[in-house]
Amino acid sequence: MIEKLKAWFIRRNPIFTSHLQRNGLLRLIPPALAMYAMIPVYIVFHIICIQLLYNLMICPLLGVDRIILKHYIVIDRHLIPGLSYTAKFHCAYCGYANGLSVASAVLLNRIASTSKPHNNPLLRLFAMPLFLLTSTLSILSQSLVTISFDYVMAPLLGLHRLSKAEASEKMAAAGFADQFSVFGRVGRSFLRYEYNCALRHANSLEQVESQWCPIKHIDSDPNVVLPEHHKFFIERCELCKLRKVLCSEGTVSPRKPTW
Questions:
Q1: Cys-Cys crosslink for 135: which of 3, 49, 181, 190, Cβ 3.0 to 4.6 Å?
Q2: Which of 116, 90, 94 is nearest to 15 (CA)?
Q3: Backbone angles phi, psi at 217, to 5 degrees
Q4: DSSP string for residues in 80-105
Q5: How many domains does the chain have?
Q6: Average pLDDT, stretch 63-74?
Q7: How far, in Å, CA of 251 to CA of 118, rounded?
Q8: Which domain holds residue 106?
Q9: Cα 217–chain centre separation
Q10: Is residue 18 part of a domain?
């Protein structure tokens, strides 16, 4: 009877049990709590920063196309049969967080490359402090996630961090915001630092999702933009294979855990 219950629990929780086997319960609890603590941060980042401030106010003022969030936030893996309720929640959470991260990066690239001053002088005067406020809120939100990852999740799970210097090198190689002049040097500095935070935020999510929900999405909408690391994910019909990979390697990411 006990063996049957154990087999059922493993079958229903292929991801959790694989990490439990590799890391032990004590290494899993603090990262889980840190991850759950970021839920309010993501809600603020989504509703206030991206939707209210950037999409509804900043984008029209700068003549930038708004972000259509449904093309980035894909929550469908909770529909995969065979997963426990906690696994379904984690997959939904990963879809939500990664969607916001990708949408934010796309939006910042649009602002950096297509912004132009508004024709109305009063609106131009209003646009800069609003942009700086929004950028500050975005930096704060994404930094909270990155700090949680860098100091709680990464050390305990052996995950890989991305430093500010490494993110800056990526930005320099891509020439990010080199031509952004709408708000002068101050605006360019804020935009670059925000994108630096976005890159480190994206790295954190890549590492976490590649461990905790590396299952391909059901949605096949051609308009959907998924994170690049999803190309390493396992088909939803191969949960047994997923457990073997996570038990042996700890992640589907090419950057394997340090233990």
A1: 190
A2: 90
A3: -70, 160
A4: STT--HHHHHHHHHHHHHHHHHHHHH
A5: 1
A6: 95
A7: 47
A8: 28-64+71-249
A9: 15
A10: no
Residue 243's pLDDT band (cuts 50, 70, 90): confident
Tokens encoding 204: 């954190």
- Percent over 90 (pLDDT), the chain: 75
Question: Could you give the CA distance from residue 66 to residue 235 in angstroms, rounded to a whole number?
Answer: 32
Residue 2 has pLDDT above 70, yes or no: no
Pair of tokens at residue 1: 């009877």
Under 8 Å between Cβ of 142 and 45: yes
* CA–CA gap between residue 40 and residue 46 (Å, rounded): 10
Entry pTM: 0.94
Ranges of H-type helices in 24-82: 25-37, 39-44, 59-62
- Rounded to whole angstroms, how far apart are CA atoms 132 and 201? 19
- Contact yes or no for 37/148 (Cβ under 8 A): yes
| Res 7 pLDDT > 80 | no
Average pLDDT over residues 125-150: 97
Mean pLDDT, rounded, for 85-104? 94
Mean pLDDT, all residues of the chain: 93
Residue 65 gets which letter from DSSP? P
